[in-house]
TrEMBL record:
SUPFAM superfamilies: P-loop containing nucleoside triphosphate hydrolases
UniProt cross-references to Gene3D superfamilies, sorted A to Z: P-loop containing nucleotide triphosphate hydrolases
The UniProt record lists the keyword Metal-binding: no
Annotated AAA+ ATPase domain residues: 41-200
GO function terms (MF aspect): ATP binding; ATP hydrolysis activity
Listed SMART domains: AAA
Keyword Iron-sulfur carried by entry: no
Domain of life: Bacteria
Keywords in alphabetical order: Plasmid
Segments passing through the bilayer: none
Designated name of the protein: MoxR family ATPase
């Protein structure tokens, strides 16, 4: 294996970390190191972590840094190869067949082929980043198929032949760890676990992504969200909820709501489950920020 040291102008983990920050993705150095190594070694990057820690956003930010369009394959239970690779446009084929007077009409020409994410990434490896999102939601049969695709980046289309990527595409996989992934898939990737950011980093994220939020408000919201995450909630607030809660409370405050009432009125931005709201209701006085800018 020949490692590349410079990828689209990024020649070190530190340079990638700086580029991600410029793309408004604030992260710990370890993620930048894993991402850089995946790029340098030409291997997929597997990001695992709880929902809401920023895995998908990391892939989007990486695509922005590299100047590539992000092609997203959202996995779900029951997804099959057809939804991931390609499909024939049967209605268009039928219409062409009815309108054609040419007995030699090719019903399997490129105009009838609908690219799905894997084929699209395979055909555009130099300009795209393939994001395979929430692979743990797909069943194990699809995971085995995906392992085969990632091994040689080749697709066989019975009607037209085999297509192979001219170079390995940049691939990022995410998993919420709702089930264990196969060891063979893990071995093929560079792995990184994304945890909730520490309070100082999360405050920095809020201030970067929500420009109207005062620093004291950001600190208060982050402290409150930290207390919520320590509770046994079914849907603890992620980083996105932290940012949005700070923005929502600030909006209400600018419209006349006093602190901490603004936080309480905007609680639905942070907690989005009826049972979680009911569980925390007796504790809200201790959890909600008391004072903010």
């Amino acid at each position: 294996m020949v490692a590349r040291t410079n990828i689209a102008g990024v020649d070190s983990p530190e340079a990638l970390a700086e580029a991600l920050i410029a793309a408004q993705y604030i992260t710990a150095p370890a993620l930048a190191t894993s991402s850089y190594l995946a790029l340098a070694l030409g291997k997929p990057l597997l990001l695992e972590g709880a929902p809401g820690v920023g895995k998908t956003e990391a892939a989007k930010a990486l695509g922005g840094v590299l100047g590539r369009s992000v092609i997203r394959l959202q996995c779900y239970e029951g997804i099959d190869a057809g939804a991931a690779l390609y499909e024939w446009n049967y209605p268009r084929q039928m219409l062409a067949l009815r309108q054609s007077e040419n007995s030699a009409l090719n019903l399997y020409g490129p105009e009838f082929l609908m690219e799905r994410p894997l084929l699209s990434a395979l055909r555009n490896p130099a300009t795209s980043l393939l994001l395979i999102d929430e692979i743990d939601r797909a069943d194990q049969e699809f995971e085995a198929f995906l392992l085969e695709f990632l091994s040689d980046f080749t697709i066989s289309i019975p009607e037209t032949g085999t297509e192979r990527a001219t170079q390995p595409p940049v691939v990022v996989l995410t998993s919420n760890r709702t089930r264990d992934l196969h060891e063979a898939l893990r071995r093929r990737c560079v792995y990184h676990w994304i945890d909730y950011p520490d309070p100082a980093l999360e405050v920095q994220i809020v201030l970067t992504r929500a420009s109207r939020v005062a620093e004291e408000t950001a600190r208060a919201v982050v402290a409150s969200v930290g207390l919520m995450r320590a509770e046994p909630l079914s849907k603890p607030p992620g980083v996105a909820e932290t940012i949005e809660w700070a923005e929502a409370a600030t909006l209400l405050n600018t419209q006349g709501a006093a602190w901490p009432d603004a936080f309480a009125r905007a609680i639905g931005v942070a907690l989005k489950d009826h049972d979680d709201l009911g569980y925390l209701a007796p504790k809200l006085d201790q959890i909600l920020p008391g004072q903010a800018a």
